DNA sequence: GCCAACGTTGGC
DNA sequence: GCCAACGTTGGC
């Protein structure tokens, strides 16, 4: 199973809203690279939910419940979205500062490509981040 | 097809 | 609020 990280600004869509909504269409991705990652997601894949701008930390884990389909918020028909569901919060949120100073997380896309909103997370990185956050399945 | 101008994201 | 990074647009 592949692992991912998705970003959201809590001002527009926060973890609390993610938890409150049963199923959330992950719409509005308008970047070719991020869109390709959305298309690669499989039902059941897990993703960290990261708060950008405010907090700048991983706050929860979500699951892909529907694979890529045309984004209803897109008029051009070029972009896709997936459906996500909250799994559980990360007990000890992992901050960007934590990630940056951790040698085991060197090369992670979050720090290399700060503007990318959907990115894959390697198995070793996923395990390490889960450990840092005290998150267990 | 190149590249300058511009817009957006996101860290600080 | 500023600015760096970087994607997109449009003139040539």
What is the C-alpha radius of gyration, as a whole number of Å? 14 Å
Low-confidence stretches: none
Which architecture per CATH? Roll
Largest sheet: 6 strands, mixed
Shape: globular
Q: Could you give me the name of the CATH homologous superfamily?
A: ph1033 like domains
Instruction: Tell me the domain tally.
Output: 1
The SSE order reads EHEHEEEHHEH
State the helicity in percent bands.
25-40%
Number of contiguous helices: 5
CATH class label:
Alpha Beta
Mean pLDDT: 94
Gap from first CA to last CA: 14 Å
Word description of this protein:
This protein is α+β, with helices and mostly antiparallel strands and 137 residues long. It has one domain (3-133): ph1033 like domains (ph1033 like fold, Roll), CATH 3.10.590. 26% of the residues lie in helices and 36% in strands. Strands 2-5-4-3-1-6 form a 6-stranded mixed beta sheet. A hairpin with a 5-residue loop joins strand 3 (46-51) and strand 4. The chain is globular and about 40 Å long.
Summed up:
Helices cover about 25% and strands about 35% of the residues. It is an alpha+beta fold and about 140 residues long. Strand 3 (about 45-50) and strand 4 (about 55-70) form a beta hairpin.
